[in-house]
Amino acid sequence: MTTNQGLKVSNDEESLKAGVRGPTLMEDFHFREKITHFDHERIPERVVHARGYAAHGEFELYESMTEYTRAGFLQKAGTKTPVFTRFSNVVGSSGSSDTVRDVRGFAVKFYTEEGNYDLVGNNIPVFFIQDALKFPDLIHAVKPEPHNEMPQAASAHDTFWDFVANNQESAHMIMWHMSDRTIPKNFRVMEGFGVHTFRFVNAEGVARFVKFHWKPLLGVHSLVWDEAQKIAGKDPDFQRRDLWESIENGDFAEYELGVQMINEADEFMFDFDILDATKIWPEEIVPVKIIGKLTLNRNVDNVFAETEQVAFHPGNLVPGIDFTNDPLLQGRLFSYIDTQLLRLGGPNFTEIPINRPICPFHNNQRNGFSRQSINVGQVSYHKNSLANNTPSTSTAKEGGFVHYAQKVEGRVIQARSESFKDHFSQARLFWNSMSPPEKQHIINAFSFEVGKVNDRNVRQQVVDMFAHVDFEMASIIADNLGVNRPTGQQSQVTASSPALSQANTRRVPQTLKVAVLIGNGFDVDEVESVVRTLRRYGVQFTIVAEKFGIIRSKDRFKVRVNETFLTTAPVLFDALYVVGGTAENQGKFNSDLIYFIDEAFKHYKPIGVATTGVPFFDASSAKAGPGIVFATNNADFSKMFVQAITQQRFWDRDIYQ
């Protein structure tokens, strides 16, 4: 291996740092060449996070954080800061589907009075690698394979799993990747994380390590895999459509911002390195302090001008927030701005309206592609006397950004701290924290993903690797893949973190979607009372029938049809209400309605059955049991149906009976 200049490379695993836990050095020419080439590989869309969708909103602070940070927007309770938030898939192209199994980006730009602050994170709190030097390798492995440009937006192929098996620092992230977290139901029920360890610094110069969390007020909910695949075909814009329509309807997306903080004196008191991006700080050990709320309340006016041209960068800070020596973060500080120079046509991308700060900005930067500012005067340098040394710098007391004066010592070296070398303890912690249905979903995901790998040796390597997480899990996967059972020994970690399981998340009925399956001659009483209850609890409903137009009850009451069995699908709804009736093509009507019931039942969704809907339910393969609510002789039907809708999934349902 050589550089592009022909120089032999001695280390392609670790970037050059000042000490094994020190900051990455700009003199690491190999890292800069490698990441620069990677950043410029694809034009014009983003190399990663190409498929994105965004919205405007505001962040409101709950309580003053003056004790911890001097960041201006975090000083006074009630302060509201304009924001722009972009959600995205990582792997696929801009034209790929929303609901593929993938990590999701969760990036927030705060337009503060001290300048723009970007919190650029994901919906998973850890990452695949520990050092940014490995990032091009990771993405090369997970992107479509170069010899045939397949598969699109998928990790289920040889090169990705070959990378995983040979870079075992990815073990923890892969457990998250195989979990339900990578197929979120929509952006409004998706958790967000800053991933890296940052610093809060207060006015006295006292620093604390900090991690950031976004917690959705609707709870954290996911699709099931079969459902996600079908939605990709039925509506590839499913998640972006949900965000757009929810905001248009006034059902704004809301997330609370939480922070975990560790005193500098406690940096080494844990059994994991707090600077390791493949590790979490378990919430049971380091509690999350909720400090404010993000509300997304306005859709973009133009997707290209805003969503596509927005430029996030983890180096966009405000006074009171600073970096740590996390080597993955250190590399991102170079990579993001380097990428934007190519994508957005040069160094003036900050003048694009979506990227402009709301506060005044002055400096001596001039010219370049797409320059919009018309600077006047003869001076464009510092220091000067011709313009009274303006623009002038500011002291910390005047609001100037001053880097935290951390002590750094050590030899200039390419190495990794010994404290980064435990790859399986937290992967085991994650497994221990899952509910039985979640564990089964992880096994199924491994079996599907690695089942798409053609090389049997790679399959065997993956099974052997994840035996270190859980031997029984790996053995089941081995049987499913037709390879040898592993012989290794699993991690001995017995701890769990209940906060990691979606079984423990919040559940509310608001904004959930119900398909009312109906035909002519329906009983108006069966529909009116249920619809009234759904409205009262904020549940949305869609009238689905044979064809568009008007259908009439047996009393000639009229209902307008919103969708037909042809134009929509059961996977696009959270629940069904089966009313039934008559249609011009009764056989087709019966078949379509039964198909909706079968699909909802298979995906563990609640189904309400009106008295007139019972014959259709009986004709389906669905059976009475958890989440099936009948109206017949049930005075509390509407209330019980809403309770079932709120539960969302009924994992104890036997869908194979």
UniProtKB/TrEMBL annotation:
<dbReference type="GO" id="GO:0005829">
    <property type="term" value="C:cytosol"/>
</dbReference>
<dbReference type="InterPro" id="IPR043156">
    <property type="entry name" value="Catalase_clade2_helical"/>
</dbReference>
<feature type="binding site">
    <location>
        <position position="332"/>
    </location>
    <ligand>
        <name>heme</name>
    </ligand>
</feature>
<dbReference type="InterPro" id="IPR024712">
    <property type="entry name" value="Catalase_clade2"/>
</dbReference>
<feature type="binding site">
    <location>
        <position position="135"/>
    </location>
    <ligand>
        <name>heme</name>
    </ligand>
</feature>
<feature type="active site">
    <location>
        <position position="122"/>
    </location>
</feature>
<dbReference type="GO" id="GO:0046872">
    <property type="term" value="F:metal ion binding"/>
</dbReference>
<dbReference type="GO" id="GO:0006979">
    <property type="term" value="P:response to oxidative stress"/>
</dbReference>
<protein>
    <recommendedName>
        <fullName>Catalase</fullName>
        <ecNumber>1.11.1.6</ecNumber>
    </recommendedName>
</protein>
<dbReference type="InterPro" id="IPR029062">
    <property type="entry name" value="Class_I_gatase-like"/>
</dbReference>
<feature type="binding site">
    <location>
        <position position="86"/>
    </location>
    <ligand>
        <name>heme</name>
    </ligand>
</feature>
<dbReference type="InterPro" id="IPR020835">
    <property type="entry name" value="Catalase_sf"/>
</dbReference>
<feature type="binding site">
    <location>
        <position position="343"/>
    </location>
    <ligand>
        <name>heme</name>
    </ligand>
</feature>
<dbReference type="InterPro" id="IPR010582">
    <property type="entry name" value="Catalase_immune_responsive"/>
</dbReference>
<keyword id="KW-0575">Peroxidase</keyword>
<feature type="binding site">
    <location>
        <position position="46"/>
    </location>
    <ligand>
        <name>heme</name>
    </ligand>
</feature>
<feature type="active site">
    <location>
        <position position="49"/>
    </location>
</feature>
<keyword id="KW-0408">Iron</keyword>
<dbReference type="Pfam" id="PF06628">
    <property type="entry name" value="Catalase-rel"/>
</dbReference>
<feature type="cross-link" description="3'-histidyl-3-tyrosine (His-Tyr)">
    <location>
        <begin position="313"/>
        <end position="336"/>
    </location>
</feature>
<dbReference type="GO" id="GO:0004096">
    <property type="term" value="F:catalase activity"/>
</dbReference>
<keyword id="KW-0376">Hydrogen peroxide</keyword>
<dbReference type="InterPro" id="IPR011614">
    <property type="entry name" value="Catalase_core"/>
</dbReference>
<feature type="domain" description="Catalase core">
    <location>
        <begin position="2"/>
        <end position="390"/>
    </location>
</feature>
<comment type="similarity">
    <text>Belongs to the catalase family. HPII subfamily.</text>
</comment>
<dbReference type="Pfam" id="PF18011">
    <property type="entry name" value="Catalase_C"/>
</dbReference>
<dbReference type="GO" id="GO:0042744">
    <property type="term" value="P:hydrogen peroxide catabolic process"/>
</dbReference>
<feature type="binding site" description="axial binding residue">
    <location>
        <position position="336"/>
    </location>
    <ligand>
        <name>heme</name>
    </ligand>
</feature>
<keyword id="KW-0349">Heme</keyword>
<keyword id="KW-0479">Metal-binding</keyword>
<dbReference type="InterPro" id="IPR024708">
    <property type="entry name" value="Catalase_AS"/>
</dbReference>
<dbReference type="InterPro" id="IPR002226">
    <property type="entry name" value="Catalase_haem_BS"/>
</dbReference>
<dbReference type="InterPro" id="IPR041399">
    <property type="entry name" value="Catalase_large_C"/>
</dbReference>
<keyword id="KW-0560">Oxidoreductase</keyword>
<dbReference type="GO" id="GO:0020037">
    <property type="term" value="F:heme binding"/>
</dbReference>
<dbReference type="InterPro" id="IPR018028">
    <property type="entry name" value="Catalase"/>
</dbReference>
<dbReference type="Pfam" id="PF00199">
    <property type="entry name" value="Catalase"/>
</dbReference>
